[in-house]
# Entry
Amino acid sequence: MAKLFSKCLGKIVLLAAAALFAACGDDGSSFGPEGGESSGAEESCSSWIATNSSSSRNDNKDTSVVDKGDTIKITYALKPFDGPLSNPHKGFTVPTGGAWTFVPEFEYGPYGSLNNRAWDLVSYGSGYQQWNKLNPAKGVYDWTELEKLLNALAEHNMGYALRVLPYTPSFIKSDFPPQEEYDWTPPFVYEMGAKKIQIDLRGTDYHAYAPVWDDSVYIWAAKEFAKALAEKYDGDPRIEYIDVRTFGEWGEWHTSHILGSEMPADSVLIDMLDYYASLFKKTQLVLPSNGFDDVYTHALELGITKRDDGFIGIPGRPDTLLRAYNANLPTIAENLAGYKTMLTYDDLIPGGNQKWTPERWVDAITTAHLTYYVLDQDNDCGYNFYKDNKALADSMSKVIGYNFTVTQAELLTVASAKDTTSTLNITVKNTGVAPCFFDVYMVAEFVDSTGKALTQIGEAVRIPKATFKDGASKDFSFKATGVANIVTQSGVSVALSLYESEDAFKSGKNPTVRFDNDGLQGNNKLLLQSQ
# Structure
């Protein structure tokens, strides 16, 4: 008799593995287990059912169970997550100049002596690299230090926003200083015949040199570097996005401070965008701050998004990013200066700059529908900013970019003489200010008291990138037929998960995307519960 009972339970488990899925989404795309092999979750479920085959009700006090004969309905009331919420491919960054950011000796780092909790909000690293360091000779490329940084960030579940600069006037500190201090165009480019021009640094008596930006040799060398960069990093999951920083001071496509230097014609700028777009097929490209008008329009047509580095200090700058948002692309911003500097501004417009205020900061994020924002650009890595504005910054971590909140959840089990069907119905709202710009895979599972998966409820649903708009709500249904409502058993709950890829779920990895709901577990799964 015991053998027969065990055999019947085995059939239940097999039926669970064949559970069906139905979803209300944009395209109904889904994926399930490969082939006919049993998953680890199914084996766990089989073991669990074998030891919990009584008909006792769930003793989890966080669920509401309504039993009407052959129908059992469990309703979940949901609360928001308490605290800041960092998620991938969105949010805030601080300068990350090298792998040394993560050593305890760096006092402003996540492990430094100051206990800088701004890192609780940081979801990706950002910073600049020097062209002459990465490309020291013709046809020679040195990625060593960049690789160390990328690997260090990856170990902390962060990507990197890459900017390769050809020039920076910040280090022109005297009259005709050594050119390698500020001109980061590789020396071999000039040795090949590229021209340079003498410039004056605005507001000083200093003189220096700058490349002739539309020189044919300079353009050739810049394109050769772009080709090598794409061969090395296009599609690399460690790279968040790459700015096209070929021209001007800081590569920002302007020459505001280096008098005597002029930007190339729009046709040259557009040609460079076309070339980058032909090389980078996977990684998001970004037009620098001062790419405007027809150049901006062409960039959007190529799928190249826009950043702006004049936030807060210059009125109206958030509005300039609306074109990128309306083109269904992520928007990126940085303040005009560091936080402490902006607190000293005089608000005398025109002629001066606006000072930083909490109201302007919130307005900048919401008006521009920002996906990415530099929390602070000073060397203190956001420490003073976060110390002064912790509560506000924590709350805005759930506003910037996408933010998925489960607003309704109900599990309905209907038993008949032939089989039992369990259906999980949920409503999810994107409460952020932008879409999610990568594919998301949503999974529902029965889990035990430790959070370990017992069996999947139906199949997973794929939400294609940029389709879950900000402010939108979507309904999803996960259906399992032929399996008893095991959630009524002691210690069993329903968990929801969000994955960045199908492979991550199938290989048993923990999800990296988190819901904005109370009940998040250490493995980033959301355990459904009521108030």
User: Anything to note?
Assistant: The chain has two domains: 2-82+403-527, 91-168+214-396.
